[in-house]
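Hi R.,

Here's the input for the 4'-deoxy-4'-aminopyridoxal-5'-phosphate complex you asked about:
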Amino acid sequence: MKTDQSQSLFARAQQLIPGGVNSPVRACKSVGCDPLFVKKAAGSKIQDVDGNEFLDFVCSWGPMILGHNHPAVVEAIEKTLRDGTSFGAPCPLEVELAELVINALPSVEKVRFVSSGTEATMSAIRLARGYTGRNVVVKFDGCYHGHADSFLVKAGSGVITLGIPGSPGVPADIVKNTISIPYNNPEILEKTLRDTKLDIACVIIEPVAGNMGVVAPNPGFLQTLRTLTTELGIVLIFDEVITGLRLALGGAQEYYGVMPDLTCLGKIIGGGLPVGAYGGTRELMDTISPVGPVYQAGTLSGNPLAMAAGAATMRQLAQPGFYAALEEKSARFAQGMTMLAEKYLPGQTTLNRVGSMMTAFFTSGPVVDFDSAMQADTARYGQHFRQMQEQGIWLAPSQFEALFISAAQSEGELATALEKTECSFKKLAK
Ligand code: PMP
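And here is the predicted structure with 4'-deoxy-4'-aminopyridoxal-5'-phosphate in place:
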């Protein structure tokens, strides 16, 4: 595979941008290679600057559920663009997307748009703290909620990938207000939440974890969390930045039938443009400025292009049968992966899948929390990543991320991806 252009751009980028990248995992360090620079993408395919083409299973880390440059999304952006790109004043598209989001997500009565998932989660915990008058945030080991100070405690995603426990620059005074507990452990959860000395404002969870690789909630875990937080007057926040509009139009809350008090969104609701959102009950959301005292603002919040891309995406997702078709494709693909793993790497892999998000962990498993995810053989994942890249398959450059199926991938392309997986697994077995 020719990579001259990418290499030359990476050399330049490293002089100008820390590590040559604007988000750490993109540097591909943990899989032992340099990043490829992308020229363009369309549908299920992504093309690098050297002209290599790949079948994309990263989907920009989740947003591109329709594939890249979906005609309806492009048309909406182009149409909106002609009338200006940012107003700093309310515009009709914000109302349109708010209606779509509120109609889709069962627990959301009011929503506020921001510009990233990080802003959404950061604002949601401020709201929970302001509303309850308490300080402590409970999160789960291996979950990632963006890079705000309070969340960089036993966090997932790049924080695991780069092997750092937290982050310098986050004051101990802030970290002391974050408690991180194991995912899927109802006993520790109950003990923690019932400890009245702790002054707990909220619990934030990825209802399906995607940032330690995909880890599903054990049956009943989310219900237990809901029951306990209701009883104890603790605000329950679902971080649906990945799962929102991915598992169902109504996200994980619809999928599992468990309603949080607040929901954080991002990725898909922006249709590939920078968006985040947080929403919830009318009572909670009316605590936000300018109605209530909890302050939160944004120059580009409700950006018309992002609103247009999000609304166009949501209209596609709302078409009858969309999620059933995606589930069927994802299930077939996962079945193929499992068969190959059993044939070539028996007892050495665990496939976790919920809907169109999945992770093949290189460990005998089961993978149910951060500690079990950490058993995965990351060197083996690195080898698999490189072997797949060589064969034109674009995977996440870390074991601790999700593989996403998009509506743009054809059955034929998924079959091809399985053939390439077979070649890679055969080599790994040697
Ligand atoms: N929450 C979750 C569950 C995420 O996966 C991410 C990003 N991967 C974030 C929050 C942060 O979103 P952003 O990168 O847009 O700030």
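One thing worth noting: The chain has a mean pLDDT of 96.

Cheers,
M.
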